[in-house]
Design a protein that fits this description.
By secondary structure, the chain is α+β, with helices and mostly antiparallel strands. The protein is 45% helix and 16% strand. The model is unreliable at 5-11 and 13-39 (pLDDT under 50).
Length: 463
Protein backbone atom coordinates (compact mmCIF):
# COMPACT_ATOMS: atom_id res chain seq x y z
CA UNK A 1 0.00 0.00 0.00
CA UNK A 2 2.80 2.41 0.89
CA UNK A 3 4.63 1.59 -2.36
CA UNK A 4 1.57 2.46 -4.41
CA UNK A 5 1.29 5.82 -2.63
CA UNK A 6 4.95 6.64 -3.35
CA UNK A 7 4.59 5.81 -7.07
CA UNK A 8 1.49 8.00 -7.34
CA UNK A 9 3.31 10.88 -5.66
CA UNK A 10 6.32 10.65 -8.02
CA UNK A 11 4.05 10.59 -11.09
CA UNK A 12 2.25 13.66 -9.92
CA UNK A 13 5.48 15.61 -9.41
CA UNK A 14 6.73 14.67 -12.89
CA UNK A 15 3.67 16.01 -14.70
CA UNK A 16 3.61 19.17 -12.59
CA UNK A 17 7.22 20.33 -13.50
CA UNK A 18 7.22 22.96 -16.33
CA UNK A 19 8.98 22.14 -19.63
CA UNK A 20 11.68 24.84 -19.35
CA UNK A 21 12.75 23.38 -16.01
CA UNK A 22 13.67 20.03 -17.45
CA UNK A 23 17.36 19.16 -17.72
CA UNK A 24 18.98 19.19 -21.15
CA UNK A 25 19.38 15.91 -22.88
CA UNK A 26 22.80 14.26 -22.90
CA UNK A 27 23.08 14.14 -26.67
CA UNK A 28 22.81 17.97 -26.92
CA UNK A 29 25.59 19.42 -24.74
CA UNK A 30 25.18 23.04 -23.75
CA UNK A 31 28.81 24.00 -24.42
CA UNK A 32 28.36 23.63 -28.22
CA UNK A 33 25.52 26.10 -28.43
CA UNK A 34 26.32 29.35 -30.26
CA UNK A 35 26.14 32.70 -28.46
CA UNK A 36 23.15 33.73 -30.57
CA UNK A 37 21.25 30.55 -29.69
CA UNK A 38 22.00 30.86 -25.99
CA UNK A 39 21.02 34.53 -25.83
CA UNK A 40 17.42 35.10 -24.74
CA UNK A 41 15.11 36.19 -27.55
CA UNK A 42 14.01 39.84 -27.39
CA UNK A 43 10.38 39.90 -26.32
CA UNK A 44 7.83 41.46 -28.61
CA UNK A 45 5.50 43.90 -26.93
CA UNK A 46 1.79 43.10 -27.11
CA UNK A 47 0.94 46.72 -27.74
CA UNK A 48 2.54 49.42 -29.87
CA UNK A 49 2.50 53.15 -29.44
CA UNK A 50 0.78 55.13 -32.13
CA UNK A 51 3.30 56.58 -34.56
CA UNK A 52 6.02 54.03 -33.73
CA UNK A 53 6.12 52.70 -37.29
CA UNK A 54 6.54 56.19 -38.70
CA UNK A 55 9.33 56.98 -36.27
CA UNK A 56 11.15 53.73 -37.17
CA UNK A 57 10.76 54.40 -40.89
CA UNK A 58 11.98 57.99 -40.46
CA UNK A 59 14.98 56.89 -38.40
CA UNK A 60 16.07 54.22 -40.93
CA UNK A 61 15.52 56.53 -43.88
CA UNK A 62 17.62 59.22 -42.17
CA UNK A 63 20.47 56.78 -41.64
CA UNK A 64 20.31 55.58 -45.24
CA UNK A 65 20.29 59.17 -46.49
CA UNK A 66 23.76 59.66 -45.06
CA UNK A 67 25.09 56.60 -46.91
CA UNK A 68 25.48 57.04 -50.73
CA UNK A 69 25.20 53.31 -51.35
CA UNK A 70 21.61 53.32 -49.97
CA UNK A 71 20.28 56.35 -51.86
CA UNK A 72 17.92 54.14 -53.90
CA UNK A 73 16.58 52.12 -50.94
CA UNK A 74 12.91 52.48 -49.91
CA UNK A 75 11.83 51.78 -46.32
CA UNK A 76 8.35 50.67 -45.24
CA UNK A 77 7.37 49.75 -41.65
CA UNK A 78 4.18 48.03 -40.47
CA UNK A 79 3.74 46.68 -36.93
CA UNK A 80 7.50 46.85 -36.40
CA UNK A 81 8.24 44.82 -39.54
CA UNK A 82 10.68 46.74 -41.79
CA UNK A 83 10.50 46.10 -45.51
CA UNK A 84 13.53 47.19 -47.57
CA UNK A 85 13.20 47.47 -51.34
CA UNK A 86 15.22 48.99 -54.15
CA UNK A 87 18.76 48.52 -55.47
CA UNK A 88 22.28 48.85 -54.07
CA UNK A 89 25.64 49.08 -55.92
CA UNK A 90 27.34 46.05 -54.37
CA UNK A 91 26.21 42.62 -53.24
CA UNK A 92 27.62 43.19 -49.75
CA UNK A 93 25.42 46.29 -49.32
CA UNK A 94 22.30 44.08 -49.16
CA UNK A 95 23.34 42.40 -45.92
CA UNK A 96 24.73 45.68 -44.59
CA UNK A 97 21.35 47.46 -45.03
CA UNK A 98 19.53 44.65 -43.26
CA UNK A 99 21.94 44.74 -40.34
CA UNK A 100 21.54 48.51 -39.95
CA UNK A 101 17.75 48.32 -40.01
CA UNK A 102 17.66 45.49 -37.50
CA UNK A 103 19.59 47.54 -34.93
CA UNK A 104 16.92 50.28 -34.72
CA UNK A 105 14.86 50.06 -31.53
CA UNK A 106 11.34 48.75 -32.00
CA UNK A 107 12.10 46.69 -35.12
CA UNK A 108 10.60 43.23 -34.89
CA UNK A 109 12.14 41.81 -38.06
CA UNK A 110 13.43 42.91 -41.46
CA UNK A 111 12.02 41.82 -44.80
CA UNK A 112 14.94 42.32 -47.20
CA UNK A 113 13.91 42.76 -50.85
CA UNK A 114 17.01 44.64 -51.98
CA UNK A 115 18.74 43.74 -55.25
CA UNK A 116 22.05 44.68 -56.75
CA UNK A 117 21.91 47.31 -59.50
CA UNK A 118 23.35 45.73 -62.66
CA UNK A 119 22.53 48.57 -65.03
CA UNK A 120 25.29 50.29 -67.05
CA UNK A 121 24.81 53.63 -65.32
CA UNK A 122 24.96 52.18 -61.84
CA UNK A 123 27.59 53.12 -59.29
CA UNK A 124 28.86 49.55 -59.12
CA UNK A 125 31.19 49.72 -62.12
CA UNK A 126 29.39 51.16 -65.13
CA UNK A 127 29.57 54.56 -66.70
CA UNK A 128 29.09 56.33 -63.37
CA UNK A 129 32.04 54.52 -61.82
CA UNK A 130 34.15 55.22 -64.90
CA UNK A 131 33.21 58.88 -64.70
CA UNK A 132 34.15 58.99 -61.02
CA UNK A 133 37.51 57.42 -61.76
CA UNK A 134 38.13 59.83 -64.61
CA UNK A 135 37.28 62.71 -62.32
CA UNK A 136 39.70 61.37 -59.72
CA UNK A 137 42.38 61.01 -62.37
CA UNK A 138 41.87 64.59 -63.49
CA UNK A 139 42.22 65.78 -59.91
CA UNK A 140 45.41 63.71 -59.61
CA UNK A 141 47.01 65.12 -62.77
CA UNK A 142 48.98 67.90 -61.02
CA UNK A 143 50.48 65.39 -58.60
CA UNK A 144 51.24 63.00 -61.48
CA UNK A 145 52.95 65.83 -63.37
CA UNK A 146 55.04 66.64 -60.31
CA UNK A 147 55.97 62.97 -59.88
CA UNK A 148 56.99 62.74 -63.54
CA UNK A 149 59.10 65.86 -63.14
CA UNK A 150 60.85 64.34 -60.12
CA UNK A 151 61.44 61.08 -62.01
CA UNK A 152 62.82 62.98 -65.02
CA UNK A 153 65.08 65.05 -62.76
CA UNK A 154 66.55 62.03 -60.98
CA UNK A 155 67.04 60.24 -64.29
CA UNK A 156 68.72 63.32 -65.78
CA UNK A 157 71.14 63.42 -62.85
CA UNK A 158 72.02 59.79 -63.55
CA UNK A 159 72.64 60.52 -67.23
CA UNK A 160 74.82 63.49 -66.32
CA UNK A 161 76.91 61.37 -63.95
CA UNK A 162 77.15 58.56 -66.52
CA UNK A 163 78.24 61.11 -69.11
CA UNK A 164 81.55 61.69 -67.33
CA UNK A 165 83.32 59.47 -69.86
CA UNK A 166 86.82 60.58 -69.00
CA UNK A 167 86.33 59.69 -65.35
CA UNK A 168 84.94 56.20 -66.07
CA UNK A 169 87.57 55.49 -68.74
CA UNK A 170 90.23 56.48 -66.24
CA UNK A 171 88.82 54.29 -63.47
CA UNK A 172 87.86 51.30 -65.65
CA UNK A 173 90.56 49.10 -67.22
CA UNK A 174 89.00 49.32 -70.71
CA UNK A 175 86.31 51.12 -72.67
CA UNK A 176 83.89 48.19 -72.55
CA UNK A 177 83.85 48.14 -68.75
CA UNK A 178 83.58 51.95 -68.67
CA UNK A 179 80.47 51.81 -70.84
CA UNK A 180 79.07 49.05 -68.64
CA UNK A 181 79.52 51.23 -65.52
CA UNK A 182 77.84 54.20 -67.25
CA UNK A 183 74.88 52.04 -68.33
CA UNK A 184 74.50 50.67 -64.80
CA UNK A 185 74.45 54.22 -63.34
CA UNK A 186 71.77 55.33 -65.81
CA UNK A 187 69.64 52.27 -65.04
CA UNK A 188 69.94 52.64 -61.24
CA UNK A 189 69.00 56.33 -61.28
CA UNK A 190 66.02 55.66 -63.56
CA UNK A 191 64.73 52.94 -61.21
CA UNK A 192 65.23 55.14 -58.12
CA UNK A 193 63.35 57.98 -59.83
CA UNK A 194 60.49 55.65 -60.71
CA UNK A 195 60.24 54.42 -57.10
CA UNK A 196 60.14 57.99 -55.77
CA UNK A 197 57.52 59.04 -58.35
CA UNK A 198 55.21 56.11 -57.59
CA UNK A 199 55.55 56.73 -53.86
CA UNK A 200 54.56 60.39 -54.37
CA UNK A 201 51.25 59.48 -56.04
CA UNK A 202 50.57 56.74 -53.48
CA UNK A 203 51.03 53.84 -55.87
CA UNK A 204 53.06 51.67 -53.50
CA UNK A 205 50.95 48.63 -54.34
CA UNK A 206 51.59 49.23 -58.03
CA UNK A 207 55.30 49.56 -57.28
CA UNK A 208 55.32 46.20 -55.51
CA UNK A 209 53.48 44.60 -58.42
CA UNK A 210 55.91 46.15 -60.90
CA UNK A 211 58.96 44.99 -58.95
CA UNK A 212 57.51 41.51 -58.51
CA UNK A 213 56.64 41.27 -62.17
CA UNK A 214 60.09 42.55 -63.10
CA UNK A 215 61.67 39.82 -60.98
CA UNK A 216 59.63 37.09 -62.66
CA UNK A 217 60.30 38.53 -66.11
CA UNK A 218 63.99 38.81 -65.25
CA UNK A 219 64.19 35.12 -64.30
CA UNK A 220 62.36 34.10 -67.48
CA UNK A 221 64.62 36.28 -69.64
CA UNK A 222 67.67 34.90 -67.83
CA UNK A 223 66.76 31.35 -68.87
CA UNK A 224 65.72 32.39 -72.38
CA UNK A 225 68.81 34.52 -73.03
CA UNK A 226 71.43 32.57 -71.11
CA UNK A 227 73.62 32.22 -74.22
CA UNK A 228 73.50 35.97 -74.84
CA UNK A 229 74.28 36.72 -71.20
CA UNK A 230 77.13 34.18 -71.27
CA UNK A 231 78.60 35.87 -74.35
CA UNK A 232 78.28 39.27 -72.69
CA UNK A 233 80.10 38.12 -69.54
CA UNK A 234 82.73 36.33 -71.65
CA UNK A 235 83.27 39.55 -73.61
CA UNK A 236 83.91 41.38 -70.36
CA UNK A 237 86.43 38.76 -69.22
CA UNK A 238 88.20 38.64 -72.60
CA UNK A 239 88.47 42.44 -72.68
CA UNK A 240 90.16 42.29 -69.27
CA UNK A 241 92.45 39.33 -70.02
CA UNK A 242 93.40 40.26 -73.63
CA UNK A 243 94.38 36.73 -74.78
CA UNK A 244 95.55 37.93 -78.22
CA UNK A 245 96.32 41.03 -80.26
CA UNK A 246 94.93 42.24 -83.54
CA UNK A 247 96.37 40.35 -86.56
CA UNK A 248 97.62 37.48 -84.40
CA UNK A 249 97.60 34.11 -86.15
CA UNK A 250 95.58 31.91 -83.79
CA UNK A 251 93.80 28.56 -83.66
CA UNK A 252 90.66 28.60 -81.45
CA UNK A 253 89.66 24.96 -80.97
CA UNK A 254 89.64 23.93 -84.66
CA UNK A 255 89.10 27.44 -86.11
CA UNK A 256 92.26 28.99 -87.60
CA UNK A 257 92.84 32.52 -88.83
CA UNK A 258 94.11 36.01 -88.06
CA UNK A 259 92.31 38.14 -85.46
CA UNK A 260 90.44 41.13 -86.90
CA UNK A 261 88.68 42.42 -83.78
CA UNK A 262 87.07 41.50 -80.46
CA UNK A 263 83.53 42.86 -80.06
CA UNK A 264 81.02 42.73 -77.23
CA UNK A 265 79.44 39.61 -78.75
CA UNK A 266 82.00 37.73 -80.86
CA UNK A 267 85.60 37.39 -81.98
CA UNK A 268 86.09 38.06 -85.70
CA UNK A 269 88.79 36.10 -87.55
CA UNK A 270 89.95 36.10 -91.14
CA UNK A 271 90.79 32.60 -92.25
CA UNK A 272 93.87 31.82 -94.32
CA UNK A 273 91.53 31.61 -97.33
CA UNK A 274 90.40 35.22 -96.79
CA UNK A 275 86.98 34.46 -95.30
CA UNK A 276 85.40 36.06 -92.25
CA UNK A 277 84.87 33.77 -89.27
CA UNK A 278 82.69 34.93 -86.36
CA UNK A 279 83.06 32.94 -83.11
CA UNK A 280 80.80 33.71 -80.10
CA UNK A 281 82.84 34.98 -77.17
CA UNK A 282 81.35 32.37 -74.86
CA UNK A 283 82.95 29.69 -77.03
CA UNK A 284 86.23 31.63 -77.28
CA UNK A 285 86.44 32.02 -73.50
CA UNK A 286 86.08 28.24 -72.98
CA UNK A 287 88.27 27.23 -75.93
CA UNK A 288 91.93 26.22 -76.12
CA UNK A 289 93.70 29.04 -77.95
CA UNK A 290 96.90 28.39 -79.93
CA UNK A 291 98.76 31.58 -80.88
CA UNK A 292 101.43 31.27 -83.57
CA UNK A 293 102.39 34.95 -83.49
CA UNK A 294 103.46 35.33 -79.87
CA UNK A 295 106.73 33.46 -80.45
CA UNK A 296 108.33 34.33 -83.83
CA UNK A 297 110.35 31.09 -83.82
CA UNK A 298 108.35 28.13 -85.09
CA UNK A 299 109.35 24.56 -85.80
CA UNK A 300 108.38 22.53 -88.84
CA UNK A 301 108.73 18.78 -89.30
CA UNK A 302 108.22 16.17 -92.02
CA UNK A 303 108.75 12.42 -92.46
CA UNK A 304 110.78 10.57 -95.10
CA UNK A 305 111.42 6.84 -95.37
CA UNK A 306 114.70 5.20 -96.47
CA UNK A 307 115.28 1.62 -97.53
CA UNK A 308 115.33 -0.82 -94.63
CA UNK A 309 118.73 -2.17 -95.76
CA UNK A 310 120.30 1.33 -95.82
CA UNK A 311 122.16 2.90 -92.95
CA UNK A 312 119.44 4.88 -91.15
CA UNK A 313 121.95 6.71 -88.95
CA UNK A 314 123.90 7.92 -91.99
CA UNK A 315 120.62 9.11 -93.56
CA UNK A 316 119.81 11.01 -90.36
CA UNK A 317 123.21 12.70 -90.38
CA UNK A 318 122.94 13.63 -94.05
CA UNK A 319 119.43 15.06 -93.64
CA UNK A 320 120.47 17.05 -90.56
CA UNK A 321 123.46 18.54 -92.40
CA UNK A 322 121.22 19.41 -95.35
CA UNK A 323 118.76 21.27 -93.11
CA UNK A 324 121.59 23.13 -91.41
CA UNK A 325 122.81 24.29 -94.81
CA UNK A 326 119.53 25.93 -95.71
CA UNK A 327 119.73 29.71 -95.14
CA UNK A 328 116.22 30.08 -93.72
CA UNK A 329 116.68 27.32 -91.10
CA UNK A 330 117.89 28.64 -87.75
CA UNK A 331 121.11 27.33 -86.25
CA UNK A 332 119.75 27.73 -82.73
CA UNK A 333 117.81 25.59 -82.01
CA UNK A 334 119.73 23.21 -84.27
CA UNK A 335 117.98 20.98 -86.83
CA UNK A 336 117.25 17.45 -85.72
CA UNK A 337 116.46 14.05 -87.29
CA UNK A 338 114.82 11.14 -85.45
CA UNK A 339 113.94 7.55 -86.26
CA UNK A 340 110.17 7.24 -85.86
CA UNK A 341 109.43 3.63 -86.78
CA UNK A 342 110.53 0.67 -88.87
CA UNK A 343 107.94 0.05 -91.54
CA UNK A 344 107.29 -2.97 -93.75
CA UNK A 345 109.88 -1.89 -96.32
CA UNK A 346 111.53 1.25 -94.94
CA UNK A 347 112.74 3.11 -91.90
CA UNK A 348 110.78 6.30 -91.27
CA UNK A 349 112.85 9.35 -90.33
CA UNK A 350 111.41 12.60 -89.00
CA UNK A 351 113.35 15.80 -89.74
CA UNK A 352 112.82 18.96 -87.68
CA UNK A 353 113.96 22.51 -88.25
CA UNK A 354 113.26 25.99 -86.85
CA UNK A 355 112.55 29.20 -88.73
CA UNK A 356 111.94 32.84 -87.85
CA UNK A 357 108.40 33.63 -89.01
CA UNK A 358 109.33 37.28 -89.44
CA UNK A 359 111.86 36.28 -92.12
CA UNK A 360 110.44 33.10 -93.66
CA UNK A 361 106.98 31.74 -94.38
CA UNK A 362 106.29 28.50 -92.51
CA UNK A 363 104.61 26.69 -95.39
CA UNK A 364 107.23 27.79 -97.95
CA UNK A 365 110.11 26.86 -95.64
CA UNK A 366 108.68 23.42 -94.92
CA UNK A 367 108.11 22.70 -98.62
CA UNK A 368 111.65 23.81 -99.51
CA UNK A 369 113.18 21.73 -96.72
CA UNK A 370 111.33 18.58 -97.84
CA UNK A 371 112.61 18.97 -101.42
CA UNK A 372 116.16 19.69 -100.28
CA UNK A 373 116.43 16.71 -97.92
CA UNK A 374 114.79 14.33 -100.42
CA UNK A 375 117.24 15.38 -103.13
CA UNK A 376 120.20 15.03 -100.75
CA UNK A 377 119.21 11.51 -99.71
CA UNK A 378 118.71 10.39 -103.29
CA UNK A 379 122.04 11.90 -104.38
CA UNK A 380 123.70 10.18 -101.43
CA UNK A 381 122.61 6.74 -102.65
CA UNK A 382 119.76 6.23 -100.26
CA UNK A 383 116.65 4.68 -101.71
CA UNK A 384 113.22 6.06 -100.84
CA UNK A 385 111.27 2.90 -101.60
CA UNK A 386 107.60 2.41 -102.13
CA UNK A 387 105.93 -0.43 -100.20
CA UNK A 388 107.39 -3.81 -101.26
CA UNK A 389 105.55 -7.13 -100.88
CA UNK A 390 107.30 -10.56 -101.10
CA UNK A 391 105.14 -13.48 -102.35
CA UNK A 392 106.03 -17.03 -101.21
CA UNK A 393 103.97 -19.86 -102.76
CA UNK A 394 105.13 -22.72 -100.50
CA UNK A 395 107.84 -23.64 -98.05
CA UNK A 396 110.17 -25.12 -100.74
CA UNK A 397 110.19 -22.01 -102.89
CA UNK A 398 113.63 -20.48 -103.09
CA UNK A 399 113.88 -16.87 -101.93
CA UNK A 400 114.21 -14.25 -104.63
CA UNK A 401 117.79 -13.05 -105.25
CA UNK A 402 117.41 -9.56 -103.84
CA UNK A 403 120.53 -7.53 -103.17
CA UNK A 404 120.97 -4.53 -100.96
CA UNK A 405 121.81 -1.13 -102.30
CA UNK A 406 125.46 -1.53 -101.31
CA UNK A 407 125.65 -5.05 -102.86
CA UNK A 408 124.23 -3.77 -106.12
CA UNK A 409 126.78 -0.97 -106.12
CA UNK A 410 129.62 -3.47 -105.45
CA UNK A 411 128.45 -5.72 -108.28
CA UNK A 412 128.78 -2.77 -110.63
CA UNK A 413 132.34 -2.21 -109.44
CA UNK A 414 131.40 0.96 -107.57
CA UNK A 415 133.19 0.49 -104.27
CA UNK A 416 133.53 4.17 -103.39
CA UNK A 417 131.43 5.46 -100.50
CA UNK A 418 128.35 7.51 -101.34
CA UNK A 419 129.09 10.99 -102.50
CA UNK A 420 128.32 13.86 -100.25
CA UNK A 421 125.73 16.07 -101.85
CA UNK A 422 126.47 19.60 -102.85
CA UNK A 423 125.14 22.20 -100.44
CA UNK A 424 121.41 22.36 -100.81
CA UNK A 425 120.07 25.50 -102.35
CA UNK A 426 117.07 27.26 -100.83
CA UNK A 427 113.87 27.71 -102.77
CA UNK A 428 113.60 30.87 -104.81
CA UNK A 429 111.39 32.69 -102.27
CA UNK A 430 110.55 31.87 -98.65
CA UNK A 431 109.59 35.35 -97.50
CA UNK A 432 106.42 35.51 -95.37
CA UNK A 433 103.14 35.88 -97.19
CA UNK A 434 101.47 39.05 -95.95
CA UNK A 435 98.28 39.01 -98.00
CA UNK A 436 95.98 38.01 -95.12
CA UNK A 437 97.79 40.30 -92.69
CA UNK A 438 97.38 43.26 -95.04
CA UNK A 439 93.67 42.47 -95.48
CA UNK A 440 93.21 42.47 -91.72
CA UNK A 441 94.98 45.81 -91.31
CA UNK A 442 92.94 47.38 -94.11
CA UNK A 443 89.69 46.22 -92.56
CA UNK A 444 90.69 47.49 -89.13
CA UNK A 445 91.42 50.93 -90.60
CA UNK A 446 88.02 51.01 -92.28
CA UNK A 447 86.19 49.92 -89.09
CA UNK A 448 87.68 52.57 -86.79
CA UNK A 449 84.53 54.71 -86.91
CA UNK A 450 82.10 51.79 -86.66
CA UNK A 451 79.52 51.61 -83.89
CA UNK A 452 80.71 48.15 -82.80
CA UNK A 453 83.85 48.97 -80.85
CA UNK A 454 86.98 46.85 -80.80
CA UNK A 455 87.78 45.61 -77.28
CA UNK A 456 91.41 44.77 -78.10
CA UNK A 457 93.64 47.24 -76.27
CA UNK A 458 97.34 47.42 -77.05
CA UNK A 459 97.98 49.41 -73.85
CA UNK A 460 97.05 46.45 -71.67
CA UNK A 461 99.31 43.41 -71.15
CA UNK A 462 98.49 40.22 -72.97
CA UNK A 463 97.52 37.32 -70.76
Amino acid sequence: MIMRLLLLLAWGLAISVPAHAQLPELDQPTETASPEASAPAQPIATTQDSGADARIAERIAGIFAELPAFSSVSVAVAQGVVTLSGTVPQQADIARAEAIAGRVSGVVTVENRLERDLSISSESGGIATLADRWEGLVKLLPLIALALAVWAGITLVGYLIAGLERLWHRLAPNSFLAELIASAIRFIFAIVGLVVALDMIGASALLGAVLGGAGVVGIALGFAMRDTIENYVASLMLSLRQPFRANDWVVIDDKEGRVIRLTSRATILMTLEGNHLRIPNGQVFRAVILNYTRNPQRRFDFDLGVDADDDADAARQLGRETLAGLPFVLGDPTPEARVIEVGESNVVLRFLGWIDQREADWYKARSGAILAVKAALEDGGFALPEPIYRLRFDARTQPLPLATTRERAASRGDTAPPKKPAPATAPADVTPQEEISEMVEAERRQAKGASEKDLLDTSRPVE
